[in-house]
Specification:
Length: about 210
């Protein structure tokens, strides 16, 4: 039985318990005929009914704890994503390729560090690079910025991030559901941060943007 099935079963039991509690409370209030005083349950007895039913549901199908996942050590000194950023530089991943976008002297260049393909969606990264120049502030070391289209295959992308030394990965909030089941150790190692829109992302990276 899955955790969702367990929750549904618990909810059904609670509904039945509520009906029983209402009946018992009415009995306490004298709305039902009292045949013997000892038949009237106390509030303590009512609470025991609830605890017993909930415990029975959990005991019938205990929740299995997933074993902790250990990640391989990241000890390479040649990480493509683990280096410091200069002002106007932004790294991102697209279709498993690692790119570095640089804005310098009002010119934008996008270099594929791992393959020959060209990036087709880097407007967000270019905006961030320009903001970096405007504030004369570089991004944190080992930072990766992903937009919505670059987060469609998040599991594979995060593996590349981990393998290449990323420590601060920004992803859109709309992609969070893809992280269900991902090892906590991986999420912590990548320092995942979530943004709802471009303005929020800029504020996370550079502080309050005027």
């Amino acid at each position: 039985m899955s955790e969702l099935s367990q929750l549904i079963e618990i909810n059904r039991n609670i509904e039945k318990q509520n009906e029983e509690i209402i009946r018992l409370l009415k009995k306490i209030a004298g709305e039902e005929e009292k045949t013997r005083q000892e038949e009237i349950p106390s509030l303590d007895e009512i609470s025991k009914i609830i605890l017993k039913d909930v415990k029975t549901t959990y005991d019938a199908e205990p929740v299995r704890e997933e074993p902790a996942v250990s990640l391989p050590e990241r000890d390479s000194e040649d990480f493509l994503l683990g280096n410091a950023h200069d002002v106007g530089e932004v790294c991102f991943i697209e279709e498993d390729d690692i790119f570095k976008l640089t804005v310098k002297n009002n010119e934008t260049s996008v270099n594929n560090l791992t393959g020959d393909a060209d990036s087709i969606d880097f407007n967000l990264q270019e905006m961030i690079a320009n903001e970096s120049i405007k504030n004369n502030q570089s991004l944190e070391d080992a930072t990766v910025i992903l937009n919505k289209s670059q987060s469609l295959k998040l599991h594979e992308t995060l593996k590349v991030c981990y393998d290449e030394g990323a420590k601060h990965v920004y992803i859109p909030m709309s992609s969070v559901t893809q992280l269900i089941g991902a090892p906590d150790a991986l999420l912590q190692a990548l320092g995942l941060k979530y943004y709802r829109n471009d303005d929020e992302l800029l504020e996370m990276l550079f502080g309050k943007v005027e």
